[in-house]
């Protein structure tokens, strides 16, 4: 692949290949927008090239299905580019409303940027037969500490392993991203899976600090400034979490978006929000993934 990338660069620099064809060729050669962005940065190209690469969209396909966790089946939604690959994969972990149109739209957004996005429905593990949330969730709200049941993490790890068996997945680049309820699970998954490429948390609670030493993946956490009504709130614990991660020499990057509420990435119509905070968070996330393409 290095030879093909070098040839593309030589053609572009000698004028035999236009800017648009160069960027599209680089995406096709590296397999994804994220990988192409990393290649452009490594080769010293201007940031405008990287932004232009990130703006490219792939034609995508969508499927639904199930994967197995022991004797249980897990429903999922999957979106990926029609052409190219193997693709980096993103495990998209839903809010406490299961796989909604919002989650499907997040998966589609990743797929249009050259990733394979898997959104499993693991909410069934968190509900009691009467449909009410389990008591431990109330404890998380009280303390601000995510105490995620083992079976939910087992379901997510089963999805990770299912991805590793797909020929269209770049197994060295499987990341997780979660929102609210799913953000806490993305954070907790990082303490239980040392093979994750990266872990991203949107306004999710932090796990117990004694679990943080087990994290090996770079982490990005994105919070809303208005999601901060007390010391144990999600944003309220962000600085404390950052200090502990820094003490442990873990990669933990975090942003707090001014005037952004909890759930700022989701629009009222269940699309991905186009608010200033959401747009900035999306760009920050793509830049983060590109920067940690090589670890």
Taking the alpha carbons of the first and last residues, their distance comes to 18 Å
Query: How much of the polypeptide forms β-strand, as a percent range?
Result: 15-25%
Give the rounded overall mean pLDDT: 86
The number of distinct helices, counting runs of at least 4 residues, comes to 10
Give the CATH class of the largest domain. Alpha Beta
Which stretches of 5+ consecutive residues score pLDDT under 50?
A: none
Overall domain count: 2
* Spatial strand arrangement across the major sheet: 1-2-4-3-5-6-7-8
Say how many strands there are.
Answer: 8
The best one-word shape is: globular
CATH structural architecture of the largest domain: 3-Layer(aba) Sandwich
CATH H level, superfamily name of the largest domain: Alpha/Beta hydrolase fold, catalytic domain
